[in-house]
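Trying the structure run again after the queue cleared.
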Amino acid sequence: MKKVNLNLRMFLLMFSLCLLATSCNNSDDNDPQTSKISVRMTDAPGDYDEVNVEVLDVKIKSTLDTGEEGWVSIGNIKPGIYNLLDLTGGVNVLLADNDVPSGNLGQIRLILGEHNTVVKDGETYPLKTPSAQQSGLKLQVNQTLTGGATYDFLLDFDVEHSVVVETGNSGGFNLHPVIRVSTNATSGIIKGIVTPFTFQSVVSVQVGDTTVSAYTDESGVFQLNGIPAGTYSVTITPAVSSELPPLVVPNVVVVNGQISNMNTLVLQQNN
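Done. Tokens:
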């Protein structure tokens, strides 16, 4: 009987230790959930040969507060000098991707270096970015990140409105970035091909008070990013030298998180 009681006590002791170990393991699983995010960069080109920007870091902040506290680097950064004019026709470059705490994402901050240049008519000029060099480009996002979900953020440079010529006789250039931020969780994409593609065309869509536009590349490919779900009219405006009229395509449906492919659009003279 004493042996049975001893065995019972040993069993209860081992059972209690197992419960304690399980409890400890469960407490480790209660860490805050994380979400996977990536930050990419693309461009709507302007009238330059090259626009080169040096990216050093990508940081995030949980709030919309304008102060300097709370900024954290995403990590897994791909620093480098990127020619924005290579990032057209749906091409983009990955700047950073990592797991971050779930919850509210207030802002993304793009930290640029000093090696920024613009090439125009074969001449290379320094591209001054005084505000970016000091504190980085702060972009409001205000997106709630759900645990376990993946979010792809796209920073869409508008080079035509971002690069300005300095006044006076310096002939220099300043970068005052105009950037749209979108994510495939809250917007969609319109893409297609415009032919003939012996000249560039501008493809545009009106989103509220904002005109979202992109140039076709050398193959006639275009891509409009960050378009909220809805039904739109897409306008294709060919170069004046083509002597072709614009083409308006109505009833293009955009679904969040999806690509609306318009396939091949043919520009031709009116009958």
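The mean pLDDT is 82. Worth checking whether this holds up in the mutant runs.
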